[in-house]
Amino acid sequence: MKKNKLRVGILFGGRSGEHEVSLLSAASILKAIDRTKYDVVPIGITREGRWVTANDAQALLTGKAAKENPRLAGDPEATATAAVIRRGEAIIVPPVPADSLQPLELSAAAELAPQQPALHIDVVFPVLHGTFGEDGTIQGLFELADIAYVGSGVLGSAAGMDKDAMKKLFKAASLPQTPYLAMLRSEWRADAKKATKKIEAALKYPLFVKPANLGSSVGISKVHDRSELAAAMDLAASFDRKLVIEQGVGGPGAKPRELEVSVLGNDTPEASVVGEIVPGAEFYDYEAKYLSDSSVPIIPAKLSAAESKQIRQMAIEAFKACDCAGLARVDFLMEPAKKGSKRKPRIYLNEINTLPGFTSISMYPKLWAATGLPYKKLIDRLIQLAVERHQEKQQTQFSRV
Do β-strands 38-45 and 51-53 pair in parallel, antiparallel, or remain unpaired? Predict the structure, then answer.
């Protein structure tokens, strides 16, 4: 008897500032995924928060405008691939995210579309970068629906998105990181002079000012001295209520090496070879990542065997510290080597990204390709890990009965 193929929902788009990056990642996955193994359901989320499927999802993916009233995911009048979550228990996600999820009962669905069988999505592959996709919110929905999904759970996703919480977990795991300070937007706006003194008492210029909860270097500024601090704080504060201010590595004029490692696995994760990004700008900001071809990836990075081993081990420890699963890219900063100095350059953990860019030319898959795991097989492995994690979770008892 022929085994049924897994039905995989590729979820993309979303309300974050990384909407376009998500579309690129999803397009790469949809092109590469093995259709002989999987039935693939594209599921899009518009910038306004509407969940769309079928032709409307394809339109969103290609940058075309969807219909004025697109069919929502779970709409029984949509195509047979429209139901998103679980067997016969579809949901409608309203355009206004603040509203509660509206359940669509099985009996109502059958009455509206008696000819349409209930759809079972086996695994969701979320390719939602940044806010509302990488921060634990969508993962909570999957948990409520009891469906397998690729990537970290609620805790790992939330910790990986919140740079302040992430750094506290790294500190608890004794992982080296540059000095930093977290500050609420309200504190900055209430008394900028007092906040400036607090920052300067704790850290030395140059500084990096970041929104605590955002990705792709959006809202990040390098601050060389006090004259640039206020503008950087205001910019970061426009993106989040909590700000992270980090001391630059190496001091004034230094340009640290930017190193990256891809991690794959659940309870026993593995690390890829180490890669390096040589940014075309002063640091690897949004423009350098996505709007310019001046940044140069070096895979593998030119490191000693000891340095490479240390960084890969730190990546696995960071993955475990944040309780991650499935995939993550871990970023590091390495002091520039000083001429005449016998001291080895220090290596600092920068951050972890639980849903990194996933185009075929993104660093996460490129690092695995260089390690011996090509893009198509990487997709297979991530789906397998999602299924394994969901099966393991079924061993957990949630009630006394």
Answer: antiparallel
